Amino acid sequence: MSAGPETRPPDLRRATLDAAARLLAREGPRGLAVRRIAAEAGCSTMSVYHYFGDKQGLLDAVQAEGHERLRAAQSVRRETGDPEADVRGTCLAYREVALAHPDYFRIMFADTPPGLSRPHGEVRSIARENYAAFVDVVRCWHERSPLRTDPASAAYGLWATGHGMVVLELTAHAPVADRAERYATTIDALMAGLRR
């Protein structure tokens, strides 16, 4: 049954995405139940089908939303005019987005649930564009101050390190104290090591 006009969220599509991300992150593939997602979002199952078509469309939309949030946060942090500061800011934004939207972050990098396909081309395109933009920022840094390695390798090392630390933090395997400082210190140390 659909929520009444006085209780319907102002952005039903976003509420449905948030509900799907929560349930998927909490319960894995079992969480991708349209009826439960609709109940959590305060809408009808028909609304879910209207916006997303089917479970595959819903999963794709959740992953696309996560990548869009990452893109928005990182693009703001790479507009300082200082390529080295832009690299650092982009790395820090990665952690900030993961902690602000942990359910989306988990789904962005989760295995595809049984019975569904890998993310469609648009989702993969957004993810590739995000990463390519990061490589471009590292390339600008390299052009300003040559690095010990090529920009693609430097970008991969920074991303893999940051991603690993974020995953450890989200899964409660990281030390409790000073997580933000440890993350920033590690990125700074790696960047220092990349300088020629």
Which key phrases capture this entry?
single chain, 196 residues, mainly alpha, MT1864/Rv1816-like_C, transcription regulation
Overall mean confidence score, pLDDT: 90
Query: What Rg is obtained from the alpha carbons, in whole angstroms?
Result: 19 Å
Structural class: mainly alpha
- In the predicted model, the low-confidence regions spanning at least 5 consecutive residues are 1-7
Main sheet summary = none
Tell me the number of helical segments per DSSP (H or I, 4 or more residues long). Answer: 9
The total of beta strands comes to 0
Task: Explain how this protein is built.
The protein contains nine helices and no strands. It is mainly alpha-helical and 196 residues long. Helix 5 packs antiparallel against helix 7 and helix 8 packs antiparallel against helix 9. The radius of gyration is 19 Å and the shape is elongated.
Briefly say what this structure is.
The protein is mostly helical. Helices cover 71% and strands 0% of the residues.
Q: What's the SSE blueprint?
A:
Elements: H1 12-27, H2 34-41, H3 45-52, H4 55-77, H5 83-100, H6 102-108, H7 121-144, H8 151-170, H9 179-194
Helix pairs in contact: 1-2, 1-4, 1-6, 2-3, 3-4, 4-5, 4-6, 4-7, 5-6, 5-7, 5-8, 5-9, 7-8, 8-9
Keywords: DNA-binding, Transcription, Transcription regulation
Protein name: TetR/AcrR family transcriptional regulator
Domain HTH tetR-type: 10-70
